[in-house]
Amino acid sequence: MGRIGLGEVLIVALVIVVLFGAKNLPKIFKACGEGLKEFKRAVKDTDDKDDIGGRNSSSV
Predict the structure, then answer these.
(1) Domains in the chain: how many in total?
(2) N or C, which terminus of the chain has less Cβ within 10 Å?
């Protein structure tokens, strides 16, 4: 059991296409990308707020 191979990735991709349809995939991936971008922005903002005075919590 360990790594995921090419066969498993292709099976998952095929199931996704069957479930959502080829027309909806670009919309779904765009929404996922925007959500990931917003998440990264929120994490970066949180890190910036934690880094007050040039020190972060790991150096204390």
Answers:
(1) 1
(2) N
